[in-house]
Write a structure and sequence with these properties.
- This protein is an alpha/beta fold.
- It has a single domain, classed as Phosphoglycerate mutase-like (Rossmann fold, 3-Layer(aba) Sandwich), CATH 3.40.50.1240.
- It is built from 7 helices and 9 strands; from the N terminus they run βββααβαβαββαβααβ.
- The strands form 3 sheets. It has a 5-stranded mixed sheet, sandwiched between helices.
- Helix 3 links the parallel strand 4 and strand 5.
- Helix 2 packs across helix 3 and helix 5 crosses helix 6.
- The longest helix is centred in the last third of the chain and has 18 residues.
- The radius of gyration is 16 Å and the shape is globular.
Protein backbone atom coordinates (compact mmCIF):
# COMPACT_ATOMS: atom_id res chain seq x y z
CA UNK A 1 0.00 0.00 0.00
CA UNK A 2 1.32 3.46 -0.89
CA UNK A 3 0.30 7.00 -0.04
CA UNK A 4 0.96 9.70 -2.61
CA UNK A 5 1.17 13.46 -2.30
CA UNK A 6 -2.61 13.88 -2.73
CA UNK A 7 -3.36 11.66 0.28
CA UNK A 8 -4.79 8.82 -1.77
CA UNK A 9 -4.02 5.39 -0.44
CA UNK A 10 -3.99 2.68 -3.03
CA UNK A 11 -2.48 -0.69 -3.65
CA UNK A 12 -2.91 -1.11 -7.38
CA UNK A 13 -0.73 0.08 -10.22
CA UNK A 14 -1.79 2.09 -13.26
CA UNK A 15 -0.41 1.15 -16.66
CA UNK A 16 -0.79 3.07 -19.90
CA UNK A 17 -0.69 1.48 -23.32
CA UNK A 18 -0.64 3.40 -26.56
CA UNK A 19 -2.93 2.02 -29.25
CA UNK A 20 -1.47 -0.19 -31.95
CA UNK A 21 -0.52 1.26 -35.31
CA UNK A 22 -3.49 3.07 -36.85
CA UNK A 23 -4.34 3.61 -40.50
CA UNK A 24 -3.30 7.27 -40.07
CA UNK A 25 0.02 6.24 -38.47
CA UNK A 26 0.71 3.95 -41.43
CA UNK A 27 -0.17 6.71 -43.91
CA UNK A 28 2.15 9.18 -42.17
CA UNK A 29 -0.61 11.65 -41.36
CA UNK A 30 -1.65 13.35 -38.12
CA UNK A 31 -4.72 11.63 -36.74
CA UNK A 32 -5.76 13.63 -33.72
CA UNK A 33 -9.45 12.93 -33.26
CA UNK A 34 -9.90 11.29 -36.65
CA UNK A 35 -11.34 7.88 -35.95
CA UNK A 36 -9.00 5.66 -37.95
CA UNK A 37 -8.87 1.97 -37.14
CA UNK A 38 -5.98 -0.37 -36.49
CA UNK A 39 -3.89 -1.80 -39.29
CA UNK A 40 -3.03 -5.52 -39.33
CA UNK A 41 0.27 -4.55 -37.69
CA UNK A 42 -1.63 -2.52 -35.08
CA UNK A 43 -3.81 -5.50 -34.18
CA UNK A 44 -0.69 -7.69 -33.94
CA UNK A 45 0.93 -5.10 -31.64
CA UNK A 46 -2.16 -5.21 -29.40
CA UNK A 47 -2.00 -9.01 -29.26
CA UNK A 48 1.71 -8.89 -28.31
CA UNK A 49 0.94 -6.31 -25.64
CA UNK A 50 -1.82 -8.56 -24.27
CA UNK A 51 0.72 -11.39 -23.94
CA UNK A 52 3.06 -9.03 -22.07
CA UNK A 53 0.25 -7.98 -19.73
CA UNK A 54 -0.86 -11.50 -18.77
CA UNK A 55 1.22 -11.45 -15.59
CA UNK A 56 0.32 -7.86 -14.58
CA UNK A 57 -2.93 -8.77 -12.81
CA UNK A 58 -5.04 -6.17 -14.61
CA UNK A 59 -8.45 -5.80 -12.96
CA UNK A 60 -10.05 -3.05 -15.05
CA UNK A 61 -9.43 -1.41 -18.42
CA UNK A 62 -10.18 2.20 -19.34
CA UNK A 63 -9.99 3.31 -22.98
CA UNK A 64 -10.34 6.27 -25.26
CA UNK A 65 -13.53 5.92 -27.32
CA UNK A 66 -11.56 6.48 -30.54
CA UNK A 67 -11.55 3.26 -32.56
CA UNK A 68 -7.77 2.66 -32.59
CA UNK A 69 -7.50 2.84 -28.80
CA UNK A 70 -10.79 1.11 -28.01
CA UNK A 71 -9.99 -1.76 -30.39
CA UNK A 72 -6.56 -2.11 -28.78
CA UNK A 73 -8.28 -2.32 -25.38
CA UNK A 74 -10.79 -4.88 -26.71
CA UNK A 75 -8.04 -7.15 -28.06
CA UNK A 76 -6.22 -6.97 -24.72
CA UNK A 77 -9.41 -7.44 -22.68
CA UNK A 78 -10.39 -10.52 -24.68
CA UNK A 79 -6.96 -12.07 -24.12
CA UNK A 80 -7.02 -11.26 -20.39
CA UNK A 81 -10.63 -12.37 -19.87
CA UNK A 82 -11.87 -8.91 -18.89
CA UNK A 83 -15.43 -8.25 -20.02
CA UNK A 84 -15.96 -4.55 -19.36
CA UNK A 85 -13.97 -1.68 -20.85
CA UNK A 86 -14.71 1.74 -19.41
CA UNK A 87 -14.72 4.28 -22.24
CA UNK A 88 -13.87 7.84 -21.21
CA UNK A 89 -13.65 10.87 -23.52
CA UNK A 90 -10.93 12.39 -21.32
CA UNK A 91 -8.62 9.70 -22.75
CA UNK A 92 -9.12 10.85 -26.36
CA UNK A 93 -6.24 12.27 -28.32
CA UNK A 94 -6.18 16.02 -28.49
CA UNK A 95 -7.83 17.68 -31.47
CA UNK A 96 -5.11 18.60 -33.97
CA UNK A 97 -7.24 21.33 -35.56
CA UNK A 98 -6.29 22.26 -39.11
CA UNK A 99 -3.41 19.76 -38.98
CA UNK A 100 -5.78 16.77 -38.70
CA UNK A 101 -5.19 14.51 -41.68
CA UNK A 102 -2.11 16.42 -42.82
CA UNK A 103 1.32 14.81 -43.23
CA UNK A 104 3.83 15.30 -40.42
CA UNK A 105 5.90 17.49 -42.75
CA UNK A 106 3.16 20.16 -42.60
CA UNK A 107 3.62 20.79 -38.86
CA UNK A 108 6.01 23.78 -39.20
CA UNK A 109 3.69 25.39 -41.74
CA UNK A 110 0.68 25.49 -39.39
CA UNK A 111 2.08 25.47 -35.85
CA UNK A 112 3.01 28.54 -33.85
CA UNK A 113 5.20 26.38 -31.60
CA UNK A 114 7.19 23.29 -32.60
CA UNK A 115 9.14 21.21 -30.09
CA UNK A 116 11.48 18.42 -31.14
CA UNK A 117 11.67 15.80 -28.37
CA UNK A 118 12.18 12.07 -28.23
CA UNK A 119 12.64 11.93 -32.03
CA UNK A 120 9.11 13.31 -32.46
CA UNK A 121 7.96 16.73 -33.61
CA UNK A 122 5.35 18.05 -31.16
CA UNK A 123 3.33 21.16 -31.88
CA UNK A 124 1.10 23.68 -30.19
CA UNK A 125 -0.66 26.91 -31.14
CA UNK A 126 -2.48 25.50 -34.17
CA UNK A 127 -5.82 26.85 -35.37
CA UNK A 128 -8.65 24.74 -33.94
CA UNK A 129 -6.32 22.46 -31.96
CA UNK A 130 -6.45 21.64 -28.28
CA UNK A 131 -3.31 23.03 -26.69
CA UNK A 132 -1.06 21.08 -24.37
CA UNK A 133 -2.04 23.17 -21.29
CA UNK A 134 -5.70 22.16 -21.83
CA UNK A 135 -4.73 18.53 -22.43
CA UNK A 136 -2.70 18.51 -19.20
CA UNK A 137 -5.74 19.78 -17.24
CA UNK A 138 -7.92 17.09 -18.81
CA UNK A 139 -5.29 14.47 -18.00
CA UNK A 140 -5.18 15.69 -14.40
CA UNK A 141 -8.94 15.11 -14.08
CA UNK A 142 -8.52 11.62 -15.48
CA UNK A 143 -5.64 10.80 -13.14
CA UNK A 144 -7.98 11.36 -10.19
CA UNK A 145 -10.43 8.82 -11.66
CA UNK A 146 -7.62 6.33 -12.27
CA UNK A 147 -6.22 6.71 -8.77
CA UNK A 148 -9.63 5.95 -7.31
CA UNK A 149 -9.99 2.87 -9.55
CA UNK A 150 -6.51 1.65 -8.56
CA UNK A 151 -7.25 1.57 -4.84
CA UNK A 152 -7.92 -2.15 -4.95
CA UNK A 153 -6.76 -3.39 -8.36
CA UNK A 154 -4.34 -2.82 -11.20
CA UNK A 155 -5.63 -0.57 -13.97
CA UNK A 156 -4.81 -0.50 -17.68
CA UNK A 157 -5.47 2.60 -19.79
CA UNK A 158 -5.55 2.37 -23.60
CA UNK A 159 -4.92 5.84 -24.98
CA UNK A 160 -2.86 7.94 -27.40
CA UNK A 161 0.67 9.35 -27.51
CA UNK A 162 0.08 12.98 -26.49
CA UNK A 163 -2.63 12.05 -23.99
CA UNK A 164 -0.48 9.33 -22.46
CA UNK A 165 2.43 11.71 -22.01
CA UNK A 166 0.16 14.25 -20.31
CA UNK A 167 -1.32 11.56 -18.04
CA UNK A 168 2.21 10.75 -16.93
CA UNK A 169 3.02 14.45 -16.44
CA UNK A 170 -0.18 15.04 -14.41
CA UNK A 171 0.50 11.97 -12.27
CA UNK A 172 4.03 13.20 -11.53
CA UNK A 173 3.03 16.85 -11.03
CA UNK A 174 5.10 18.01 -14.01
CA UNK A 175 4.49 20.70 -16.61
CA UNK A 176 3.30 19.91 -20.11
CA UNK A 177 6.75 20.84 -21.44
CA UNK A 178 8.34 18.28 -19.13
CA UNK A 179 5.69 15.78 -20.17
CA UNK A 180 6.56 16.10 -23.84
CA UNK A 181 10.19 15.35 -23.06
CA UNK A 182 9.30 12.19 -21.11
CA UNK A 183 10.15 8.73 -22.36
CA UNK A 184 8.84 7.59 -25.72
CA UNK A 185 5.37 6.18 -26.09
CA UNK A 186 5.39 4.02 -29.22
CA UNK A 187 2.51 1.96 -30.58
CA UNK A 188 1.68 -0.89 -28.22
CA UNK A 189 4.17 0.27 -25.57
CA UNK A 190 3.24 -0.15 -21.90
CA UNK A 191 4.29 2.52 -19.40
CA UNK A 192 3.62 2.43 -15.65
CA UNK A 193 2.41 5.61 -13.99
CA UNK A 194 4.87 6.08 -11.15
Amino acid sequence: MRENNRNYIYMGKIYLVRHGQSEDNAAGVLGGRRDSGLTALGAAQARRTAEELKSFGIGVIFASPLKRAYDTARIIADKLGIEEIISDERLMERDFGVLSGHPYADIPRYAGLVIEADEVRYFDQVEGAEGFPSLLRRAGEMVEVLRAAARDRNVLVATHADTGKMLLAAFQGRSWEEGIRATGFGNGKVVELE
